[in-house]
Design a protein that fits this description.
By secondary structure, this protein is an alpha/beta fold. It is built from 16 helices and 13 strands. It folds into 2 domains: 3-192 and 378-391, Rossmann fold (3-Layer(aba) Sandwich), CATH 3.40.50.2000; 196-373, Glycogen Phosphorylase B (Rossmann fold, 3-Layer(aba) Sandwich), CATH 3.40.50.2000. The protein has helices at 3-10, 29-44, 61-67, 95-117, 131-139, 155-160, 180-183, 202-209, 231-239, 241-247, 281-287, 297-305, 323-333, 347-356, 360-373, 379-391, and strands spanning 15-20, 49-56, 79-83, 121-124, 144-148, 166-169, 186-188, 220-224, 249-253, 271-274, 290-293, 310-312, 337-339. The strands form 2 sheets. Strands 3-2-1-4-5-6-7 form a 7-stranded parallel beta sheet, with helices on both faces. The chain has a 6-stranded parallel beta sheet with strand order 10-9-8-11-12-13, sandwiched between helices. The two termini are 15 Å apart.
C-alpha cells in the first residue's frame, strides 16, 4: 500500500468489502485467501475493515466460509449472508425455468443486503451464486471486481464482466477469449492461494502420513482427486497399486465416495489412503515429490506455489465445459506438467509418465517451470493491495 494514502484511509469510518461466490469450494477458497491478505493488510495500516460474504443459502457455502481460519486462527469474514441461487446452464434443462425465479430472488435479496451494508466494492470469485450480487451492485452503483481462475472464462465471469469495473485474470492469454472492451478492463494477477501454502512444513506432512522408513529410498507420490475423489484416478491406482508402491511411497486421497478397496498386504508399508485431507494438505503436498491430480485451477496453482511436478488427468466429457483440459494443456505447454486425456489415460501411459519422474533431475526441471508461472508477489496479496489502493479512498 502506498504510504501517502494511508492517513486518508485511517481517518475513514469502518470500510466494508463484500465477497460474492460459491456453489463449490473452488469458488470460495481463493476468495478466502484474498480476505486473509486484505485483513492483514488493513491490520498493518490500522484500517477498520468489515468483511462480509454473499453465498448460497443452500449447500455448504456458509460452513466453508465460517470454518475457514486465517493466519491469526480466526475467521477473516465478519458475516455470511445466504441468498437464493439458481444454476446457470448452457444446455437444455427444465430446471432452467425454475432457476430463473431463484436467480431473480437472489438479485432482490442481494439488492437489499448491499443497500444495508454499503460496501465500497463487491469482489466476485465466480460461480453461479456470484451473478445476483454483481447485478445488484451495478444497479446500486457499487464497483464490482471479478476474478477468473481458469484459463478460459466461465459463464458467470462472462456475465459478471458486464457489471465489473475490473476483470482479474490468472493468465495473460485469457484476454484472447474476451472482447476488446472487456480485455481493456483486465488485469493479470495469477490465481490466489491460501497463505498457508507459502509457509508449509514438510515435517508436519511426514508425521501425518507416518510411513515406516528411516531413510526415503524412493519418491513420495500424492494422488488427489478433490473432496469427492475421482473414480477414474482411483481405478488407475487400484489397478496398478503394486507397481506404484514398488516405485513410490503412495499417499492417496480417495474422496468421500470411497470404493471398497483393500490394499494387498505386500504394499501396506508404502500405501496410505485417506478419505479427505484438509488442514494438513498443504504440508502433505510439500512432503510429496510428485503429484497426480485432476486439473482444477486451485489445485494447479497450489502445486505451482509449492513447485511440485504434476501428472494431470483433467476432467473432460459432456459434463464439463472443458476448463480443466484448458488448464492442464497450458501447464503442459509451459513444461510444468504431464497431461493424460482421452485415449491416453491408461495404465501404461500412467506408468510411463511416472517412470520419467523417478529421475530427480527431471523433477527439478518441472519444479523450475512451475516457479516461472508465478507472479513476483503472491496473487492474493496483489489483489488485496489493488482493492485497497483503488477503492478505499473513494
Amino acid at each position: 500500500m502506498k504510504k501517502n494514502n494511508t492517513q486518508n484511509i485511517k481517518q475513514a469510518k469502518k470500510i466494508t468489502v463484500a465477497f460474492a461466490g460459491g456453489g463449490t469450494g473452488g469458488h470460495i477458497y481463493p476468495g478466502l485467501a484474498i480476505a486473509d491478505e486484505l485483513k492483514e493488510l488493513c491490520k498493518k495500516n490500522d484500517i477498520n475493515l468489515n468483511l462480509v460474504w454473499l453465498g448460497s443459502s443452500r449447500g455448504y457455502d456458509k460452513d466453508i466460509v465460517e470454518s475457514s481460519k486465517g493466519p491469526d486462527k480466526k475467521c477473516s469474514v465478519n458475516k455470511f449472508y445466504g441468498i437464493p441461487s439458481g444454476k446457470l446452464r448452457r444446455y437444455f434443462s427444465f430446471k432452467n425455468f425454475t432457476d430463473v425465479f431463484k436467480i431473480g430472488a437472489g438479485c432482490i435479496a442481494s439488492f437489499f443486503i448491499l443497500l444495508k451494508i454499503k460496501p465500497v466494492v463487491v469482489f466476485s470469485k465466480g460461480g453461479f451464486v456470484s451473478v445476483p450480487p454483481c447485478f445488484a451492485a451495478k444497479i446500486l452503483h457499487i464497483p464490482v471486481v471479478t476474478h477468473e481462475c481458469d484459463f478460459t472464462p466461465g459463464l458467470a465471469t462472462k456475465i459478471n464482466s458486464h457489471f465489473a469495473s475490473k476483470i482479474l485474470l490468472s493468465y495473460k492469454e485469457t484476454e484472447e477469449y474476451l472482447s476488446k472492451e472487456m480485455a481493456s478492463k483486465s488485469l493479470v494477477t495469477g490465481n490466489p492461494v491460501r497463505p498457508v501454502f507459502y509457509s508449509t512444513d514438510e515435517k508436519i506432512g511426514k508425521d501425518f502420513v507416518k510411513f515406516k522408513y528411516t531413510k526415503k529410498t524412493k519418491p513420495v507420490l500424492l494422488v488427489m482427486g478433490g473432496s469427492l475423489g475421482a473414480k477414474q484416478i482411483n481405478d488407475l491406482v487400484y489397478e496398478n497399486i503394486e507397481w506404484l508402491c514398488d516405485k513410490f511411497y503412495v499417499i492417496h486421497q480417495t474422496g468421500r465416495q470411497k470404493e471398497k478397496f483393500v490394499a494387498p498386504e505386500s504394499v501396506k508399508d508404502s500405501y496410505r489412503p485417506f478419505e479427505f485431507i484438509y488442514e494438513q494438505m498443504p504440508h502433505v503436498m510439500q512432503y510429496a515429490d510428485v503429484i497426480l491430480s485432476r486439473a482444477g485451477a486451485n489445485s494447479l496453482w497450489e502445486c505451482a506455489v509449492l513447485a511440485k511436478p504434476v501428472i494431470l488427468i483433467p476432467l473432460c466429457g459432456s459434463g464439463t465445459r472443458g476448463d480443466q483440459v484448458d488448464n492442464a494443456e497450458y501447464f503442459e505447454k509451459k513444461g510444468a506438467a504431464t497431461v493424460l486425456t482421452g485415449e491416453y489415460v491408461s495404465s501404461n501411459a500412467l506408468k510411463n509418465a511416472l517412470t520419467a519422474l523417478l529421475d530427480a533431475k527431471k523433477r527439478k526441471c518441472f519444479s523450475e517451470a512451475c516457479k516461472n508461472l508465478l507472479p513476483q508477489k503472491r496473487s492474493a496479496f496483489l489483489i488485496a493491495d489493488f482493492i485497497v489502493e483503488t477503492y478505499f479512498n473513494k
